Amino acid sequence: MSFYDQLKFDANGLIPAIIQDQKTGRVLMFAWMNRASLEKTVATGKTHFWSRSRQKFWMKGESSGHTQAVKAIEFDCDGDVLLIQVEQIGAACHEGYRSCFFRAVQKDGTSYKIMEPQLKTPEDIYGEKR
Amino acid sequence: MSFYDQLKFDANGLIPAIIQDQKTGRVLMFAWMNRASLEKTVATGKTHFWSRSRQKFWMKGESSGHTQAVKAIEFDCDGDVLLIQVEQIGAACHEGYRSCFFRAVQKDGTSYKIMEPQLKTPEDIYGEKR
């Protein structure tokens, strides 16, 4: 049986995808896929998403070069979330951090701190004028 | 500045939360929080969620005993996803697996396989009559 039959896309035809670095276990980012972007991800071995804000299909790294090679695709008990293990080239975050989850709440329960080094600036990645 | 000011809840007042086992790095589950459940999570040190299907506040483990002790709360660049590091008691998945992501797509790109042992049956966890 195809794993697609186990998946439930939401009312907008989307399913959330958690992207994890297979080697380090670091959760890198979170984005949405539709069926076509998932099929493209399976077919090419590179992650493809659906941008809800831009209503546009995109390949991770298409402008930055920071692509993600797919190592495994897992899905949850309810079939409504994907967990994709990848090998990440460069920074997953468009702000130049390895992971998008670079900020953590501190012990006081309200303040927060940046917890990892910024590998590149957005200007390094996308060019100054963007 | 409070980290709450950095967060963007969606049109329904919800934010997705990825739950990760701090020790092993295994992604355990994915669920939704509203501001009240996040505040409760911060205040009690146990994860609390909002059930979209039941329209109900719930504490993870309230019926199963499989609670999650919060070790860290991280949030992404856009402030619209939480990554919560926990210490998991027992099985995170209501189907008795350690992680909800117990199934993985196989090399053919369509078939799938259960990749981890079922620690308990749902009957073990919730009782036979449920």
Describe this structure in words.
Two copies of one chain form a homodimer. Chain A has 130 residues and is mainly beta. Chain A has two helices and eight strands. In chain A, the strands form three sheets. Chain A has a four-stranded mixed sheet, with helices on one face. In chain A, strands 3-4 form a two-stranded antiparallel sheet. In chain A, strand 3 and strand 4 (56-59) form a beta hairpin. The first copy, chain A, is globular and about 45 Å long. Chain A starts with 13 loop residues before the first strand and ends with a helix. The mean pLDDT of chain A is 95. Strand 5 (68-75) of chain A pairs antiparallel with strand 7 of chain B.
Task: Compile the SSE list and pairings.
The structure is a homodimer of 130-residue chains.
Chain A (H helix, E strand, L loop, with lengths): L13 E8 L5 E8 H10 L3 E4 L4 E4 L8 E8 L6 E7 L14 E3 L6 E3 L7 H5 L4
Parallel strand pairs in A: 1-6
Antiparallel strand pairs in A: 1-2, 3-4, 5-6, 7-8
